[in-house]
Amino acid sequence: MGTLRSLGRRRCLELLASVPLGRVVFTDRALPAIRPVNHLLDGETIVIRSGLGHGLASAATAHGAMVVAYEADQIDATARTGWSVVVTGSARLIMDEERIRYYESVLDPWVDEPMNCVIGIDCDLVSGFELAALSITGNPLTR
Q1: Chain segment 4-18, per-residue pLDDT in tens
Q2: Domain count across the chain
Q3: Residue 136 maps to a domain
Q4: How many CA atoms lie within 13 A of 7 on its CB side?
Q5: pTM
Q6: CATH number of the domain to which 111 belongs
Q7: Sign of the C-alpha dihedral, residues 87, 36, 27, 92?
Q8: How far apart are CA 143 and CA 138, in angstroms?
Q9: 88-97, pLDDT tens digit by residue?
Q10: For residues 86-122, b (16+ Cβ closer than 10 Å) or e, as one string?
């Protein structure tokens, strides 16, 4: 057994920045969709790349900006420890050519497909938790 502890916004963003992979949750043809993506955190904006024909980029193109959720974590199933951070915010295509070139230079796709869209997700609502192992000293049967 462990203990579950809520994390503050600043710690959540630090943890989010410490991992390269997360999951974006969005609406695709009126249904929920979840996709694993690599990301970087630029201030309080999560930046991902996507292909124009893929669900999130297509939805962002069609709707301008859309509300999405983004989750990243690092869980050790053996030790039963770890953390999870969830961000809810507006996702939109980044249109500034200079920023696009920069993000393309530092955010390499993990899949061998054209990633011709850069998407920014605002960190509007940020929450997280940490699961810590219980520290037990001595033999619990003799207490």
Answers
A1: 999 999 999 999 999
A2: 1
A3: no
A4: 23
A5: 0.85
A6: 2.30.110.10
A7: positive
A8: 8
A9: 999 999 989 9
A10: bbbbebbbbeeeeebeebeeebeeeeeeebebbbbbb
